[in-house]
Automatic annotation (TrEMBL):
Entry keyword annotation includes Hydrolase: yes
Gene Ontology biological process terms in this record: arabinan catabolic process; xylan catabolic process
Highest taxon of the lineage: Eukaryota
TM helices/strands, residue ranges: none
Signal peptide positions on this chain: 1-21
InterPro entries according to UniProt: BXL (IPR044993), Fn3-like (IPR026891), GH (IPR017853), Glyco_hydro_3_C (IPR002772), Glyco_hydro_3_C_sf (IPR036881), Glyco_hydro_3_N (IPR001764), Glyco_hydro_3_N_sf (IPR036962), Ig-like_fold (IPR013783)
Protein name: Fibronectin type III-like domain-containing protein
GO molecular function per UniProt: alpha-L-arabinofuranosidase activity; xylan 1,4-beta-xylosidase activity
PANTHER family, per database record: FIBRONECTIN TYPE III-LIKE DOMAIN-CONTAINING PROTEIN, SUGAR HYDROLASE-RELATED
Alphabetical UniProt keywords: Glycosidase, Hydrolase, Signal
Entry-linked SUPFAM superfamilies: (Trans)glycosidases (SSF51445), Beta-D-glucan exohydrolase, C-terminal domain (SSF52279)
């Protein structure tokens, strides 16, 4: 049996969780699938019984109703479909966002030929959670470190192709289990404001502008480029003011984020606004309250901002269990009827519950009866759900939709494997490189040791919520390095993986003595930092600092290279300062290509793998610089508002070559609201071909304004050959010169500064390249809404 046949057969088996709803006959891939649907009051709140047959998982294509007429506009088709639904049917559709056997799928409506649909899927760096293999790219924080819109787009494209291919096969197999749909809950674009937050790895870093730009490219990659259909739909999560805590010092499910209007608009909202501009199909409302109002019943965020100010037309889905937590955790309201009414009135369209058969949205009909909800509003809320399904092609002939032909055979094909390696290689950030200790020439090192809890730790190198795949697809650091150092020595030295609760000191000594090269593989992994788990501090976990100190003690003249696998910053100041540590390479969680990517960068394989990743979040010098986790003021947080020195700054990263910036040119005067055109030249003045990340930062000379110290205005990753000079033109959007004050955006008359280079200006630790600077004057002032 081929892989796809095995996939389909096993997908059928995985549908056993739906047996209370569906029974399946013996399946043949070439046959239509018959299944009996019996929807009872106890399961879904409605009564219906019908035997139906979907050809390849799709209903018969008879044009019996206007919503099936493909020549009509989308809105007309959606309006017709929703007009034919009873209020009970609408309620069930809005209540079945997953996850689990009781709340997924949104059930079929046989009398209209409407098939089931699964909403609860994830694919932010590969199809997650669904049965079967998937390409496993680096975790999102590593992808962000590429500072490359193209890399982000490529990851999303591959994840989208594989997710849709598997989804098509699941539908053909009649499997509608959790995570088998084509609507992905990503990108996650909450800003990193605290280095201890457990979910840093799922984000794109601390800068709201960069997060928004990357999110827009994720959505572009997910949706595909067809003029009528989308491949999979993206959802920007988690909306909003959600950046920890997970569990320390208080649980996220009841946390109330107190935030000023200025911080809300300057930091927490911009990335989500970019999602609307990029055409996201949905948002996910968060667990926390915002200034006393739980996010999933928050009219200010979901209606006043999202729909009225930003003109968003899609749907909002709750985070899993968030609507139930309005009652049980926040104690904000006390009955299902009241919460259902509050959520729908505020702007929530779909409930993702904790697999509760009678979840909150199953009270929508009762809320209408009690006059707490208007039926016409309920009908409006369900429309974006069916519009999304139409754009996925669920109500059109499959032969008209190119994405209907995708299947699971695309998973982890050679092109996708190569792309995973490319992105992992591009994500690494070189933090230290004394006397050009890297790249390595493997032929010069005969006695090599690999030491540390991340050396051969398959389970931790993917990070939180990894795509499922065969173990054979991935290489650990040990497996990769053994290919260039065949006699490499390795033994486990830590108890309990990266927690390193006990250290085998004698083994460390044995491995460290009489070596030419020692590679230490340290870090956190999801057992230390992840969803549900914040860190109490920034220290290397357990005995890992002692481990590194012992290596230094016993290594003699061996060259010591440290590999770090983590998302949130680590306190490695001692290693950065110690001359015995030759190099430090930040690897994040690289996914399936971990071993090969490490070899590529450590050796600059084929002269094409000079590191050019840059840190997407600030590494503080000490924890004392970081405000309390529960304090949502941006004062003192991130490079935009931090006044002290960092260990490693946002945008920092070394290379195997050096760059020189020259000839910065821009108009000395611009009108308020006018984009800024900039020209400059960049030269690779070293001997190694390499990528470089061009970064431009803005600052306001008038320090009395409510503005950041500086903020990113532009970034782009470019490739420059050794000895080559390139001319680079760029545009900084006028919005980057605006700030929020008195319920409006303001661009003030006055002088601003512009720095361009491969890093921020005035940092404690800098890359070996210069920064060019120019002033420009804004000649007038304007005030505007979100329409600039």
């Amino acid at each position: 049996m081929n892989f796809r046949g095995l996939f389909l057969l096993t997908a059928l088996t995985s549908a056993a969780s739906l047996v209370q709803c569906y029974t399946f006959p013996e399946f043949s891939e070439k046959q239509h699938i018959s299944f009996k649907e019996d929807i009872s009051v106890s399961r879904h709140g409605i009564s219906a019984s019908a035997s139906i047959r979907w050809g390849s998982g799709n209903p018969p294509r008879q044009v019996d109703y206007p919503f099936q007429n493909t020549s009509l506009p989308w809105d007309a088709r959606v309006d017709d479909l929703v007009s034919r639904l009873s209020l009970q049917e609408i309620m069930v559709q809005m209540a079945r966002g997953g996850a689990g056997e009781y709340t997924t799928p949104a059930p079929a409506i046989p009398r209209l030929g409407i098939p089931p649909y699964v909403w609860n899927s994830n694919c932010h760096r590969g199809d997650q959670g669904a049965w079967g293999n998937a390409t496993a790219f680096p975790q999102s924080i590593g992808i962000a470190a590429t500072f490359s819109s193209k890399a982000v787009f490529d990851v999303a494209s591959v994840a989208s192709i594989e997710t849709r291919g598997k989804h098509n096969d699941f539908v053909k197999a009649g499997s509608f289990a959790t995570h088998t749909g084509a609507s992905c809950f990503n990108p996650m674009i909450n800003v990193v404001r605290d280095p201890r937050w457990g979910r840093i790895q799922e984000t794109y870093g601390e800068d709201p502008y960069m997060s928004g730009e990357l999110a827009a490219n994720v959505l572009k990659g997910l949706h595909g480029n067809h003029d009528r259909f989308v491949r999979v739909t993206g959802s920007c999560v988690i909306f909003d003011v959600y950046s920890g805590p997970e569990n320390i010092p208080s649980p996220r499910e009841s946390f109330d984020a107190k935030v000023t209007d200025e911080d809300m608009h300057m930091t927490y909202l911009p990335g989500f606004k970019k999602c609307v501009e990029a055409g996201t199909y949905s948002f996910m409302c968060s667990y926390n309250s915002i200034n006393g109002v739980p996010a999933c019943v928050n009219k200010k965020t979901m209606t006043d901002i999202l729909r009225t100010a930003w003109k968003f037309k899609g749907y909002v889905v709750s985070d899993q269990g968030a609507i139930e937590f309005v009652i049980s955790k926040h104690k904000y309201l006390h009955t299902h009827v009241d919460v259902a009414a509050a959520a729908v009135n505020a702007g929530c369209n779909l409930e993702l519950s904790n697999n509760e058969p009678f979840n909150v949205f199953m009270s929508i009909v009762e809320a209408v009866k009690q006059g707490k909800l208007n039926e016409s509003l309920v009908r409006q809320r369900v429309k974006p759900l069916f519009y999304t399904r139409m754009r996925l092609g669920q109500f059109d002939p499959p032969q008209t939709n190119p994405y209907s032909s995708l299947d699971s055979s695309v998973v982890n094909n050679p092109e996708h494997k190569e792309k995973a390696l490319e992105v992992a290689t591009k994500s690494f950030v070189l933090l230290k490189n004394v006397n050009n200790s890297l790249p390595l020439d493997p032929s010069k090192f005969k006695k090599v040791a690999l030491i540390g809890p991340m050396a051969d730790n398959y389970g931790q190198m993917f990070g939180n919520l990894p795509p499922k795949q065969s173990r054979s697809f991935a290489k650990t650091p040990l497996q990769g390095l053994k290919e260039i150092f065949p006699n490499l020595q390795y033994k486990p030295v830590c108890h309990e993986q990266t927690k390193c609760t006990e250290l085998r000191k004698e083994t460390v000594q044995q491995l460290s003595e009489n070596k030419d090269l020692i590679i230490a593989a340290l870090g956190t992994g999801p057992v230390v930092e992840s969803e549900f788990h914040d860190r109490e501090n920034l220290e290397l976990p357990g005995h890992q600092k002692e481990l590194l100190q012992d290596i230094i003690k016993y290594k003699g003249s061996a060259r010591l290279v440290v590999l770090l696998f983590n998302a949130g910053p680590l306190n490695v100041t001692f290693a950065d300062d110690d001359k015995n540590v030759a190099a430090i390479l930040e690897c994040f969680f690289p996914g399936q290509s971990t071993g090969d990517a490490i070899v590529n960068v450590l050796t600059n394989k084929d002269g094409k793998n000079s590191p050019a990743g840059r840190l997407p979040n600030t590494w503080p010098l000490t924890l004392s610089q970081v405000p309390q986790m529960v304090n949502y003021s941006m004062k003192g947080r991130t490079y935009r508002y931090m006044t002290g020195s960092a260990l490693y700054s946002f945008g920092y990263g070394l290379s195997y070559t050096n760059f020189e910036y020259q000839a910065l040119s821009l108009e000395p005067k611009v009108k308020a609201g006018q984009d800024i055109r900039v020209d400059l030249s960049v030269s690779n003045i070293g001997s190694v071909d390499s990528d470089e990340v061009i970064q431009c930062y803005l600052s306001w000379k008038n320090k009395s304004l409510p503005v950041p110290i500086r903020q990113l205005g532009y970034f782009e990753r470019v490739h420059i050959q050794a000895g080559q000079q390139i001319q680079h033109s760029l545009t900084i959007k006028a919005q980057r010169t605006a700030y929020w004050k008195d319920d409006s955006w303001v661009i003030s008359k006055g002088t601003m500064g512009l720095w361009c280079g491969g890093q921020q200006p005035d940092q404690r630790k800098s890359a070996h390249s210069n920064i060019v600077y120019a002033d420009f004057e804004i000649t007038d002032s304007i005030t505007y809404s979100d329409d600039l």
